[in-house]
């Protein structure tokens, strides 16, 4: 069963989606193989954890978040990381807010590997790739200079049934960490890292059935990363405010427009508040929904990424 689609935005997190049985065929270096990833829990109906929560509609001083994770050219503006599943090539599209400025090819990924996150692991100010191999559960960091591959190092290998789904500095020691997810228990965990080296691990919150962890961003913004969640069947979104690995509170976000999925979050208009990135798999168009905490403020189309999938943000 081939589920690869050149424009499938689900590429990087499709193994999270319950009841989907995913066969990844790959061939490299004279070897071929197939891995089947399955998840046991069917999509649930909305579990009613929503409590409509009024959140502040303004904050005193808009301050752009420093160093957006996907700012590859370091101009302070988040960029798109694209992936071509047929050639395994990556590309960076440099953006000015929602507007395409220019593009550059990035490194080509080895068969079986995917980009699970973008963060500056060696703390040289330049974003790096966190790669994950779902069949071996091996992780790796690819150190980059903008779009150019510099070097690689293996990270820790995940325990069986866990996946690498996001990266970010949860414990605020300046070093990016791994966020892991177990589709059979819906549990998340944080693995604290020193560059590519495992330091320690803790459990994070257990997700509500039907929801996937789209990414991390500081929606409050209180300096602490939060979970951005999306229910693909209802298109509902939610933000779970965290203190490190500890759930503090949650707030419903806007319901995504029909035909679109929630692909990620970054502060595109640089007002200090993360915004949603939407993707329409049919038209391959992207859109930005500008957010104030969990509240939709306005929207704008982004570039169309025909033939590629959006790997980050
Ligand atoms: Ca940039
Ligand atoms: Ca780096
Ligand atoms: Ca926060
Ligand atoms: Ca913003």
Can you characterise this structure?
By secondary structure, the protein is mainly beta. Helix content is 0%, strand content 49%. The strands form six sheets. It has a four-stranded antiparallel beta sheet, with no helix packed on it. Strands 6-7-8-9 form a four-stranded antiparallel beta sheet, with no helix packed on it. It is globular, with a radius of gyration of 18 Å. The chain starts with 21 loop residues before the first strand and ends with a strand. The N terminus is likely disordered. It binds calcium ion (4 copies). One calcium ion binds next to loops. The site of one calcium ion has 7 residues, from loops.
Question: What attributes does this structure have?
Answer:
disordered N terminus; about 325 residues; binds calcium ion; 4-stranded antiparallel sheet; mainly beta
In short:
With 313 residues, the chain is an all-beta fold.
Shape: globular
Mean pLDDT: 85
Unreliable stretches (pLDDT < 50, length at least 5) are 1-61
Q: Tell me the structural class.
A: mainly beta
Count of individual helical segments: 0
Q: Which helices and strands appear, and what pairs or packs with what?
A:
Layout: E1 22-28, E2 31-37, E3 80-83, E4 89-96, E5 99-108, E6 114-119, E7 128-133, E8 138-145, E9 148-154, E10 163-168, E11 177-182, E12 187-194, E13 197-206, E14 212-217, E15 226-230, E16 237-243, E17 246-253, E18 261-266, E19 275-280, E20 285-292, E21 295-304, E22 309-312
Antiparallel strand pairs: 1-2, 3-4, 3-22, 4-5, 6-7, 7-8, 8-9, 10-11, 11-12, 12-13, 14-15, 15-16, 16-17, 18-19, 19-20, 20-21
The structure holds calcium ion (4 copies).
